Amino acid sequence: MTLVTDAQLMADRSKFLKNSTTVGITCVPFSGGQPKGGVDDGPVEMVRFGILDQIQGMGYSVELSENMDKYRTMQPAHDPPIGKLKNPRYVSMAARRVAEQVQAHCSQGRLAVTLGGDHSIAMGTLVGSSAVYGDDLCVVWIDAHSDINTPSSTDSGNLHGCPLSFVLGLCDESDVPADSPFAWVKPCIRQSHLVYIGLRDVDAGEKAILRKHNIKAFSMHDVDKYGIGRVVEMALDHVNKDRVLPIHMSFDVDALDPSVAPATGTPVRGGLTFREGHYICEAVAETGCLVALDLVEVNPALGDPESLRQTVAVGCSLVRCSLGESLL
């Protein structure tokens, strides 16, 4: 009897990928969007833990973007703040390179998987995937934080809390003047095509933005109230009712409870359980609509060796589930 691989099963249900049994992986060892060192080693540790072999073991071919070390060496010698924003030139340069690499994978019909690195890189991943799939692209953002601050509303100036404001077109001209390092980032995601799952630590300014623009978000209150199955169904119904549009899922491991993923930079109690996080990935994979995946904010420098092992292992497991690994 011929064994049917996870890759073949995913290929049978895939609605958008022309090269559905090949995964295009971009490793982004980058920490410039936040102040804690170590998150740039996240993708290195996931590769060391065997994520590439694991994906190939599911029946996929792997195409790896070249020269990931360039993300470390491209940092400008002089990068003073612009307004509140910290490391703006470095973040912009890295995001632009990410965009090019993700776009290259998507244009070849591969499922584009990006391993971070801090969540500011999603500015690049979303520009890259939307360049191929257009404004039909839906975004499922799994995170404890909404990451939708504008350059004006951010208190910290850390750009890992701002990527969505750029791609949604929420920044005004004073936020992004013509000479801004981010002037290249054009609005590419419809506000009605974004949905959050797992929020529980949202700045006051971000709450105002979410309410003003009527952006759909399911907090941990909703997960507690309805259960993860119903929440995922409602989230997908909001952005992709008939499951006929491409999906980009961006998963920050701090969406998980710190007891599940302790080695991350901004842990918040009361998060998703191990199974809730995996169920989201399984359910999105089942739609056949997934075209791009980010897995970010694994920080090997935080916690003891067991915390690192646990967090890297769960990160790899979430990627595999998003690629079609199932319990049976």
Shape: globular
Poorly predicted tracts of residues: none
Rg, nearest Å: 18 Å
Please report the distance between the alpha carbons of the first and last residues.
17 Å
Mind explaining what this structure looks like?
This protein is an alpha/beta fold and 328 residues long. The chain contains twelve helices and eight strands. An eight-stranded parallel sheet has the order 2-1-3-8-7-4-5-6, sandwiched between helices. The longest helix has 20 residues. The protein is globular, with a radius of gyration of 18 Å. The model has no long low-confidence stretch (mean pLDDT 97).
SSE arrangement:
Blueprint lengths: L5 H8 L8 E7 L13 H8 L1 H7 L3 E4 L5 H4 L14 H20 L3 E6 L5 H12 L4 E5 L20 H5 L26 E6 L4 H9 L3 E4 H7 L1 H13 L6 E6 L21 H13 L3 E7 L8 H18 L6
Name the features:
8-stranded parallel sheet; 12 helices; 328 residues; alpha/beta; 14% strand
Overview in brief:
This protein is of the alpha/beta class and 328 residues long.
